[in-house]
Predict the structure.
Amino acid sequence: MHVRMLTGGLATACLVSLSLTGGQALAAAPRVADAPLAARVLTYDASGSAEFRSAVNRGAAIWNESVDAVELRPVAAGQRANIRVLADNGWPRALPTTLGNGTVYIGRQAVDEGYDTIRISSHELGHILGLPDRKPGPCSSLMSGSTAGTSCTNPYPNAAEKAEVEGNFAGALAERAPAGRAGVIVD
């Protein structure tokens, strides 16, 4: 995960007056530079993703490599996950509930037709992170989904997609849903 550094945003604003015998001295408060901003951590449960588990883990890792504002981690035992990932025989789809929460289905129908499992995983996780489909679209757009064709194996978000996720999670609250994004997104 990249750690975004806060630079120049916090300036030395306070002076502390020290009273010394025989005069006064002023000492500046220490400057807090390069303080890391914490990423919003979302957990995912891939235990129901069957043969696609490694693709789901790779898709989450790709998002972690690509953005700073959010980090996807496997859920710890006994905890409730933000994101459930399941395998089924249908078409891949995401059911976001609120920003960063929902269920992803890695459908075997698309895999049987030749679509790349890691691209599917990254794409569907993109919906949970607040991104809509961008169809039709080129292979360079992760959110173009199936319209890029079965030969497209690019699992990485482009610059605009990364920026949108960064914006979605910059100061976002766990309960806030992206406008118009709740519901089923079938790819």
